[in-house]
C-alpha cells in the first residue's frame, strides 16, 4: 500500500510505529494491523494532514469501508486503530484536540441501510455533465450501480466483455458468477461512454470496462468520492456511498412487488437472511405511506 503523499503524515506514521513497537509491547501481527489501518486512513485522506482531521473525516472513512463491504470485525478494529493513533498524537502534542473522543464504537455498519427515494436517484443520476468524457463515464457507472444493484467492487472488475444489450455478467463474493438483467437506460449510458470516450483512453492490454483518463481501471475510492460530490450537487443531505445505490435498487424492487428470492438472486446473497433486512426497510416505507395518506391517521 502506498503511503500518503503528505510528508507530515508519513512522519507521524513512522513515529507511531516506533511508539507501538517500543512502548506498547505488541506482537508484530498487531503492529502490522495498526500500521495497515492508519496507512489506509492516510491514503483516504489524500493530501489532508492528520492535524486537520475532524470527526466527520473518520466517519466518512468508516462509511467508505462499509460501502466497500469490509467485515464488521475489520471496521471495529480499524476504529480502534484510529482511536489509538490519535490518542498517541494528542499525547505527543502533535494535535490540539483528539477527533475520536466523541466516537464510541458505534454499530453504524449494523444499522438499516440508507435508502434514496426514486426522485433522489433521478436527481443524482442527472448530475454528471454529459458534455465531458468523465461525466459520460460517471453517468454510466451510476446507471449500472443503481440499475443492476452491483457492488462497487464488482463494477470495478467489469471488462469490455462483461455486458451486452440485455445482461451483465459479474463475479461476486467467492468468485461466484451471476448474470443480471441490465436496463435500457444503463445500456444506453454504457454505449454512449464506449462509443464516445472509452476508445480515447484505450490500451492494447487494458480490458477493464471503466477506466480513468490515463487508461487505468477505476477504483472504489474514486467512485466513492465522485458519488459524494454528485450527491452534494444534487442537494442530497443523506450520507450516501456506492452501496446506497445497491440498497436503493433492492428496496425499490421490493416496494414495487418483486419477490424476495428474486432480489436475493440479483444481489448475489448466499443467504436469504442477508436480503431479508430489505423487508424491514419496506415495512418502514409502508408505515410512512400509511401515516401520510390514510384519512384516519390525519
Task: Give the CATH class of the largest domain.
Answer: Mainly Alpha
Strand content: under 5%
Low-confidence stretches: 1-5, 106-112, 293-298
Q: Specify the helix fraction band.
A: 55-70%
Based on DSSP secondary structure assignment, what is the total number of beta strands? 2
- For the termini, the CA-CA separation is 57 Å
CATH superfamily of the largest domain: Intergrase catalytic core
CATH architecture of the largest domain: Orthogonal Bundle
Strand order of the largest sheet: 1-2
What is the radius of gyration? Answer: 21 Å
Mean pLDDT: 80
Order of helices and strands: HHHHHHHEEHHHHH
Major sheet, described briefly? 2 strands, antiparallel
Number of helices: 12
Descriptive overview:
This protein has 298 residues and is mostly helical. The chain has two domains: 7-110, Tyrosine recombinase, N-terminal domain (DNA polymerase, domain 1, Orthogonal Bundle), CATH 1.10.150; 118-293, Intergrase catalytic core (hpI Integrase, Chain A), CATH 1.10.443. Helices cover 56% and strands 3% of the residues. The protein has a two-stranded antiparallel sheet with strand order 1-2. Helix 1 (7-22) packs antiparallel against helix 2 (28-45). The longest helix has 22 residues, at 272-293.
Amino acid at each position: 500500500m502506498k503511503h500518503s503523499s503528505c510528508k507530515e503524515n508519513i512522519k507521524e506514521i513512522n513515529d507511531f510505529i516506533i511508539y507501538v513497537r517500543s512502548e506498547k509491547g505488541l506482537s508484530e501481527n498487531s503492529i502490522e494491523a495498526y500500521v495497515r489501518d492508519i496507512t489506509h486512513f492516510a491514503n483516504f485522506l489524500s493530501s489532508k494532514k492528520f492535524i486537520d482531521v475532524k470527526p466527520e473525516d473518520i466517519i466518512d472513512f468508516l462509511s467508505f469501508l462499509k460501502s466497500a463491504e469490509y467485515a464488521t470485525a475489520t471496521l471495529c478494529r480499524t476504529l480502534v486503530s484510529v482511536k489509538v493513533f490519535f490518542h498517541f498524537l494528542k499525547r505527543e502534542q502533535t494535535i490540539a484536540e483528539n477527533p475520536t473522543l466523541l466516537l464510541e464504537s458505534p454499530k453504524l455498519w449494523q444499522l438499516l441501510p440508507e435508502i434514496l427515494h426514486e426522485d433522489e436517484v433521478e436527481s443524482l443520476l442527472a448530475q454528471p455533465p454529459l458534455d465531458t468524457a468523465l461525466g459520460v463515464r460517471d453517468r454510466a457507472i451510476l446507471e449500472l450501480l443503481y440499475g443492476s444493484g452491483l457492488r462497487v467492487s464488482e463494477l470495478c472488475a467489469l471488462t469490455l466483455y462483461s455486458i451486452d444489450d440485455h445482461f451483465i455478467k459479474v463475479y461476486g463474493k467467492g468468485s461466484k458468477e451471476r448474470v443480471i438483467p441490465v436496463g435500457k437506460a444503463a445500456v444506453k449510458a454504457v454505449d454512449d461512454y464506449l462509443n464516445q470516450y472509452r476508445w480515447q483512453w484505450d490500451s492494447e492490454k487494458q480490458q477493464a470496462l471503466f477506466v480513468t483518463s490515463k487508461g487505468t481501471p477505476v477504483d472504489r475510492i474514486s467512485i466513492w468520492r465522485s458519488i459524494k460530490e454528485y450527491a452534494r450537487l444534487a442537494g442530497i443531505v443523506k450520507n450516501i456511498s456506492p452501496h446506497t445505490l445497491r440498497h436503493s435498487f433492492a428496496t425499490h424492487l421490493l416496494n414495487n412487488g418483486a419477490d424476495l428470492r428474486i432480489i436475493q438472486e440479483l444481489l448475489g446473497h448466499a443467504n436469504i437472511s442477508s436480503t431479508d433486512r430489505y423487508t424491514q426497510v419496506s415495512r418502514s416505507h409502508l408505515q410512512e405511506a400509511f401515516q401520510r395518506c390514510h384519512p384516519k391517521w390525519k
